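Standup notes
- HV: blocked on the assembly model, inputs below
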Amino acid sequence: MAIIASRADLFPENIADVKRAGHRLQSIDAIARADLRSTEALICLLSDRIDAAVLHRAPQLRVVANVAVGYENIDVDAATERGIHVTNTPDVLTESTADHTLALLLAAARRIVEADTAVREGRFPTWGLQQALSGIDVHGKTLGIVGMGRIGAAVARRARHGFGMSILYHARAPKPDVENGLDARYMSLEQLLASSDFVSLHVPFTPETHHLFDALAFERMKSSAILINVARGAVVDEAALAQALQTGQIAGAGLDVYEDEPNVHPELLKLKKHVVLAPHLGSATEETRRAMADLAIRNVLAVLAGKPPLTPVPPPSTHEQPKM
Ligand code: 8YV
């Protein structure tokens, strides 16, 4: 019997799985206050920082299971040095996150949140050709995808096959397998920014992607363009984005992630036209959160049974880059 400490509010079926495997589940409300001395498995969230100091407090630890595809909250080097497995939850959240990306793109382009507010406040606009709350067309436009991993490709499929959009993309290297069937064109970030009506971010957060979207990037975008970010907040310089929106350098933004969650840059909060702000809900559907929890549990149970984890985070020695 091993002790599994969980920061995640697991579902009844996860609790049953742990019981069936003969382990004990301990619910913890904060990593900082938890007694981890006997913990052999830790289930954690993106908001939990798992650094060398936390690992030091858990001498029995064998696996850290992040309930997220991203894992920049975990010091993977420190874990690997101690022989601790780190796992994430790829694939199971790809389609939901892609759905959410399109939801933000459509909402920002067609001003759905502003429209909803107007109706609720009794400001139903009078009919006119140059109608108040008119938006920007999505179908047939050009979508620039930055980071063509699993989620980027799922967004591209929806945009291409659902909305007849032309797909441009920038990634570390061209991906001929993804290009097939999508007519997607690989190009430099600079070219992509100059040519896209919508730009959607799907890169992991790494030192290289920190503030990849800064004042210069916004200068390079079309003034009619809308930026969508469901990846990581710190890929965008939020102050520069607020300024680009205020000055009309770009037309709008659909954001799900922020540099300093749960705080949002105060200047962004003031912007309404073509700006939609969601609170990090990319994978937040009932079905997907169940699938994420199930995968995290299966990773933990595999390691505790002496088997390899199903979805290990690549050990740093492989030099494999994280994928979204
Ligand atoms: C997380 C996410 O599920 O998977 C990721 O990397 O950003 C989200 O889907 C959420 O933050 C819960 O940890």
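- HV (later): unblocked. The pocket of 2-keto-D-gluconic acid is lined by residues 45-46, 67-70, 93, 280, 282-283 (CB under 6 Å). The mean pLDDT is 96.
- Next: hand off to the docking folks.
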